[in-house]
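SEVERITY: medium
COMPONENT: batch folding queue
REPORTER: lab tech (J.R.)

DESCRIPTION
The queue accepted two submissions in a row. Attaching both inputs and their returned structure tokens so the on-call engineer can compare them side by side.

ATTACHMENT 1
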Amino acid sequence: MSGGEVVVVTGFGPFRQFLVNPSWKAAQGVKSVGLGEQTDVYVKEVPVSYVKTQQIIAEIWQTLKPKFAVHLGVARGSSVVILEQTGKNCGYRDKDVCGFCPKSHCCVEGGAEKLDSIINMRAVSKEFRRAGMDVIYSRDAGRYLCDFAYYCSLYHGQRKAALIHVPSTGSLSSADRLVPLLQTLMQAMLAQLEGHSDTARPAVTVR
């Protein structure tokens, strides 16, 4: 680590047919290309487990105190990149890889029903779509581990988090297309976070 500001990028562990989860491969790809000289990228693989996800996300915010966290998950059957605006607190009924589901069906008991990222995902997706990229905006992250991790991170990190669903099919599922796009997306989010997105917006390049 070079002493710059820390951005955490997480991907998920093995899940059903994904022996190596594409979201974790993508996170490692972002680590290898970086997010600019002033930014240290810390990557973490998160098991598809409610209990471990809760522990890891809380620990990330308490110990690393990152400037921003980006959680990557895979959208099965999707060929586009999906930017999620909102994390939902309750309604988790599907069991994780350990066969477990929280009794309360919630991320944080007594927490707000939903939390929105500090980043305007609609604006980011619009900008990338104008440049011809397959990036769409969503307000429903699916009530499974991706949504669960996102809410926990928004809760612990004062909403300075993003959830990006990466595609499992199509041309964007290949690392050489996906990683540069994720890099540029994250840089656009960081520019917006710093409040000078008009001056510091990275050029959106179509590969």
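ATTACHMENT 2
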Amino acid sequence: MYRYRFNLRYWLYCKLTSPDNMFVEHKYIYDAFVSYTSDEYEWVIRQLRSKLKLVEDTVRLCIHDRDFIPGKQIHENILDKLKESRKVLLIISPGFLESRYGPLEIEYAGMKCLEEGRVDVIICVLMEDIPVRQMPRALRNLWHKITFLKWSAKPEEQAIFWRNLKIAVSQPVP
């Protein structure tokens, strides 16, 4: 039971909140749900948000500090905002992998992929080089199926990073 606690929580949430598929045929409010820890907060707010606002049509990001509903349980906020988002942008760092909610958000994002029948839902930004064996099982299972972008401190590589991220986030859902 403990090993599958997130799957059980997700299953119960789906059964209690809506009788039909939770993510299918839904009008999305956000282009991407951004999953990050407090270690990456400055980067998310100062760089990610400002760079993606420069896109022709502003990319609508769901950022938990701004968009979560106060007083609601965190896992319910996560599920509701995932439901309202076309894609999931995981900002992967050692702190994210060790955090309490990082692995949970990875699990829920994987379930969103299964629910929608598409793997192009998840986009991972690797903030540092992290060996695959240190990734949670849910992420390792999707490793060869999802988009990974590597953040670099070098300005010449950042231009390519931002271009690729804008393309990945703003691609329409098939």
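NOTES FROM REPORTER
The beta strands are 30-35, 61-63, 85-92, 122-126, 147-150.
No errors were logged for either attachment.
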